[in-house]
Design brief:
The protein has 197 residues and is mostly helical. It is 48% helix and 8% strand. It has helices spanning 4-26, 40-51, 87-104, 131-136, 142-158, 171-177, 180-183, 189-196; strands at 57-59, 68-72, 81-85, 123-125. The chain has a two-stranded antiparallel sheet. A hairpin with an 8-residue loop joins strand 2 (68-72) and strand 3. Helix 2 (40-51) packs across helix 5 and helix 2 (40-51) runs antiparallel to helix 8. The chain is flat and about 75 Å long.
Length: 197
């Protein structure tokens, strides 16, 4: 009976581990790099408030058209074809894609590794005056302002400080035009940025 007791203990341990595995699989592990992209607009807005004194960018709502054009090729040597899809065809194709994804992942039980996710973040940079008036009357370079906005958005998407996105040779120029971007590396704005990430 003594040799059976260690076997029973091993079986009980294995059963406990198997019961715990499905629960642990749903929760991100410490080594996982989980990013909630639904929070990206909030992060971008907070970074603009912290790093852009003018707060010129405004949210942009992107609405796809009602009719989509699908370009496809039935085979490698076949002629390309083009079709217009209305709402019913779009819904059918989306449902087919999600059904295929469910089948391939066994309804989400298997992870999708080596996949790419495309996130579109849009903002409209608003000027109080026209570009010509900004240059002539304000003696300001509008490209530097748009460049600052682009760097702030890119830093939110890539989760790095804005200065990490600039070539070393361009850093003095950008620092002269937008010094607040460089405060995020170690100054007062760093705590705000860290809270967002």
């Amino acid at each position: 009976q003594q040799p059976q007791q260690p076997q029973q203990q091993k079986q009980q341990q294995q059963q406990q581990q198997q019961q715990q595995q499905p629960q642990d699989a749903d929760q991100p592990q410490e080594g996982d790099n989980v990013v909630d992209y639904t929070q990206l607009p909030r992060d971008v807005d907070a970074r603009f408030e912290a790093l852009d004194p003018e707060s010129a960018p405004r949210p942009t709502i992107m609405s796809p058209g009602e009719v989509w054009t699908k370009r496809s090729q039935r085979g490698l040597l076949a002629q390309p074809s083009e079709a217009s899809w209305r709402e019913a065809e779009q819904k059918r194709a989306k449902d087919e894609a999600f059904d295929l994804l469910d089948a391939l992942t066994k309804c989400g039980a298997l992870p999708v590794e080596h996949a790419s996710l495309h996130v579109v973040v849009a903002a409209t940079h608003c000027f109080d005056k026209t570009v010509t008036e900004t240059v002539i009357q304000n003696n300001a370079n509008p490209i530097e302002k748009v460049e600052r906005s682009t760097l702030i958005m890119a830093s939110a998407v890539h989760r790095v400080p804005p200065s990490a996105l600039i070539k070393d040779s361009q850093q003095p120029r950008v620092k002269a035009a937008s010094p607040a971007l460089f405060l995020a590396d170690g100054g007062a704005a760093a705590s705000t940025i860290d809270l967002l990430s």
